[in-house]
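Hi,

Apologies if this is the wrong queue. I'm a grad student, and the batch job for Protein kinase domain-containing protein from Heterotrigona itama produced an output file that my downstream script rejects. I'm not sure whether the problem is my script or the file. Here is the sequence I used:
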Amino acid sequence: VYLAEYKPESDPERNSTLACKVIDTGIAPKDFVRKFLPRELDILVKLNHPHVVHVHSIFQRRTKYFIFMRYAEHGDLLEFILKNGEVAEGQARIWLRQLALGLQYLHEMEIAHRDMKCENVLLTSNLNVKLADFGFARYVIDNRGKHVLSDTYCGSLSYAAPEILRASPYNPKIADVWSLGVILYILLNKSMPFDDTDIKRLYEQQTNRKWKFRSKIAEVLSEQVKRLVSHLLEPDVSKRWKLDQIINSEWIAMDPRLLMLTPAEQAAFNNAVQERKKIEEKVFMKDP
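Support response: The file is valid. Your script probably expects a header line. Output copied below for reference.
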């Protein structure tokens, strides 16, 4: 990723800094160019949410794609935690809510992220989080409107849900929620919930709920956040919490202001609902 300077035509005196991701299809793996890149570009141009990174423009020049997006002044969440340590519960509450709303927006548009991790969460100058990197994202319905399961192993091992490690088809939306739980755990604990050096041991720890907070952290955390983490790191997919349960949870409600959507959040969600209706209408017209 490179930094780029942008001068708006309407105000050439004003400089804006953008981040530029360069993808060279000439040297990228063929599978990526054929399957993942078209999906990423298709999804990026449709996204518009306050907690999802804003794509300014996309250019193609010969074999290269240049994706210009909002520059995140404070880098990614992993960098921030490594530099500053675990995050206070009040700050974690704000960030988890923002990520849950961004993910809810994607899921409403029938898009699964499939690579939720701290490195793909960017921090702006005023310390808001933005979900980024849609290289593994995909639509979860086919052209007949039928929900499709994923069978590709995507993302990072540390954040992968147990159903992915089983190597059987899985619901990628539900797997995204597990990854969100890992992010929340790392925010509060500055460590990973599981040992990922051995896949078999990792899977056993996940399915047996063998994780715990560091003792000095556990002493100061609220019971509400402890319960929320256990609902997200729930190995049984039928019991793992849904995003609306997270957004309206007791823990989020500890700051009543966070139960209200901002106008920008509400408008983005409404647009996602409309986008999904358009998809459904297309399917209905194809299959009367």
